[in-house]
Amino acid sequence: MHSFQALDSQYIKINLLNVAKNYLKLKSMLKDASVVCSAVVKANAYGLGIKEVSEILHQYGCCDFWVMNIEEALIVRETSPHANIYVFQGVNGVEELKAMLHYKLVPVVSHTRQLEIINNFPNHPIEVILNFDTGIGRDGFQLEEIEQLNLKYCDIRYVMSHLSRSEIKEHPFNEEQLQAVKSLKERFPNSKFTFSNSGGIFLGQNYHFDLVRPGGALYGVNILEGKKNPMLNVVEFNASVLNHKIFNKAHSIGYGGTYKVNKGDKVLILNTGYYDGYRRVLSNKSRVYAEGFYLPVIGVVSMNLTAVDANQLPDELFHTIKNVELIGEKITIEEIAKLANTDQREILTNLQYNCKRIYIK
Amino acid sequence: MHSFQALDSQYIKINLLNVAKNYLKLKSMLKDASVVCSAVVKANAYGLGIKEVSEILHQYGCCDFWVMNIEEALIVRETSPHANIYVFQGVNGVEELKAMLHYKLVPVVSHTRQLEIINNFPNHPIEVILNFDTGIGRDGFQLEEIEQLNLKYCDIRYVMSHLSRSEIKEHPFNEEQLQAVKSLKERFPNSKFTFSNSGGIFLGQNYHFDLVRPGGALYGVNILEGKKNPMLNVVEFNASVLNHKIFNKAHSIGYGGTYKVNKGDKVLILNTGYYDGYRRVLSNKSRVYAEGFYLPVIGVVSMNLTAVDANQLPDELFHTIKNVELIGEKITIEEIAKLANTDQREILTNLQYNCKRIYIK
User: Fold this and answer.
1) Which chain A residues touch B274 with a CB distance below 8 Å?
2) Which residues form the Alanine racemase C-terminal domain (chains A, B) (predicted)?
3) Do B257 and A137 touch (CB under 8 A)?
4) How far is the C-alpha of A217 from the C-alpha of A201, rounded, in Å?
5) Domain residues of chain A, as ranges?
6) Do B299 and A138 touch (CB under 8 A)?
């Protein structure tokens, strides 16, 4: 006799308590209490919810947040009226600058046009983060530009730079960038500095300077790829079982028929697919976890459905199982990112915004 | 002298008028006026906005919509009070069934447990879509199960099946599935049938039966991969230029330093990255379009930033350019999907839900 309960819908569970614990752990690694541990909550806190994440971190003592743009800044400002909020995209127009000053947001200044906006503004000085490119080759002034910069209207809160290979601890480029930052330090002897992202924190205390900017590590990304993850897991992504299917004959599975099952094979059909952020590249590659068993994904992941081989499951369990873990304690973000041949952070930011979310705090 | 206008933010422009035109074009391909052209608007209309899409299609005469679940159905019900709404995930509990009946939603019945829920419900008959698996190997009853099915409480609106290789026109499996559906037709001689997705419509009129269910083609997916797209483009995904950078010396670009520029090279830094749905796999592979020029993406696509080689741009244009097309008329979804080694639909559903959207209608 089957029960007629409604389908347990899929969900993404976000453990905010573990975000807070990760924050405290990173903070405990810093050179001393004078180093500020900020939090990068840009990109909707890597897709996990900027409001919820900044709120819990603020409760646990974080007073410095990094966001992408003004829209994100205002979300953080609401939950943390007195926090320092730094805006990566900086200020790209006069109206934007007025809004930033009104809400006490600090723009990152990364190129001449942004500096000109500051310099042409009537009220001075204006607090900024002054961003130099010591190797990322993306945003930030080039070191050779220093002498031409007119900084007299800037109140520099931090001189900033960004690591480009920090997750490979032994990469000589880290040391090169460190030396470049030290040379900047000579140029700005009275300024505070911020250099390290999550990876930088693990490179050692000489990388910490005055403020560190962890992002991924807060959300459970394994910075020490391939080694034991020093951070706690934050995300649990679960799918519901839509159908428990025993095949009556040999049959191909999914679009293009890339996998074949035999007569008698047990297959679970899950209500989750690439629309939800369970990426199509995982087709015939990844596995899900359920009640002590790892079940391989078979066939092509569809937009809203995924099939898994459930032959290992005892009959009773096969017929009653309702949920499986796609990502979580047993199937790490790192495992999925490796199979998807991408960065762990893309797995996080790719999770469907629309999906039901449960916040643990 | 630079202008100080605010940064033109990135946006996703969705041409609803072209969705409607695509719908009318597909409808014109059908066997005759008795064949119903429905619209698959599940998965938030493939990520493009279920409310907006169903609304315009309803205005253009579409009265039959397919959604994933009740939540989506209710969005369509609001804009189209009298439309037929079919729910792919079907009914998975008594309360769900009550809600479906209340809102006049028609569940797809794909397996025994769902059929039992119907059969155990006091009010009969209940309108359903009866789903058979003729080859997709995913959802749907197996043909061998027919004799055991107790269908006396079902009012079958359509018998349904789904193609698994419809985008490869010459694939013999299409014909095999067609034959299986024809054999079902003998078993249910008085029932109406629905079989074809977008691809099926292009396989020929013998695949159309009583109702067709296009999805991707409505949204500009090229069903005839590699050939000229018969559908109109729907999505335009634009990024803003954050920084116009001329390198003072040879420099590596992005995380891991996977690309090197030389002294004097011109690079545009865009405010869009994999968070926004511009996938990381496109790193060093794809190109963007701006004012007659195709500019290659260089280095690794970051979460919120992408660098492009802008050496081809004349100086004046390089310094003033504000926007580039990532996906649109010039850079098709098909091109991006091919480079990303995935299905065109995943490119659509992966676009950031949070991103600013502009609807053309």
Assistant:
1) 342-343, 345-346, 349-350
2) 234-360
3) yes
4) 10
5) 16-219, 233-360
6) yes
Q: Which residues of B touch A213 (CB under 8 A)?
A: none
Q: In this structure, which amino acid lies at residue A246?
A: I
From A113, A145, A307, residue closest to B138, measured CB to CB: A307
Q: What is the pLDDT of residues B25-81, one digit of tens each?
A: 999 999 999 999 999 999 999 999 999 999 999 999 999 999 999 999 999 999 999
Confidence of residue A89 (pLDDT cuts 50, 70, 90): very high
Asked if residues A212 and A192 have their Cβ atoms less than 8 Å apart, the reply is no
Is the separation of the CB atoms in B51 and B14 below 8 Å? Answer: no
A213-253 confidence digits (pLDDT tens): 999 999 999 999 889 999 999 999 999 999 999 999 999 99
* Contact across the interface for B304 and A42, Cβ inside 8 Å: yes
Asked if B160 contacts B64 with a C-beta cutoff of 8 angstroms, the reply is no
pLDDT attached to residue A9: 77
Q: Does position B310 have pLDDT exceeding 50, yes or no? A: yes
How close does chain A come to B252, measured CA to CA in Å?
6
CATH code given to domain A16-219: 3.20.20.10
Chain B hits for A117, Cβ within 8 Å:
4
Is residue A5 scored above 50 in pLDDT?
no
List the single best residue of A115, A303, A341, A345 to mutate versus B (max B Cβ within 10 A).
Answer: A303
C-alpha distances in Å from residue B90, one per residue of A42, A243, A300, A354, B154: 38, 11, 22, 20, 13
* Total residue count of chain A as it appears in this document: 361
* Beta strands in B170-292, from DSSP E residues, in sequence order: 193-194, 211-212, 235-246, 251-253, 259-261, 266-270, 287-290
Marked catalytic residue, from B11, B21, B25, B42: B42
Contact B257 A135 (CB under 8 A): yes
**Class of domain A233-360 as given by CATH:** mainly beta
Phi, psi of B13 (to 5 degrees): -100, 130
In this structure, are residues B285 and B309 in contact, taking their beta carbons and an 8 Å threshold? Answer: no
Q: What is the pLDDT of residues B116-152, one digit of tens each?
A: 999 999 988 999 999 999 999 999 999 999 999 999 9
Is residue B343 pLDDT above 90, yes or no? yes
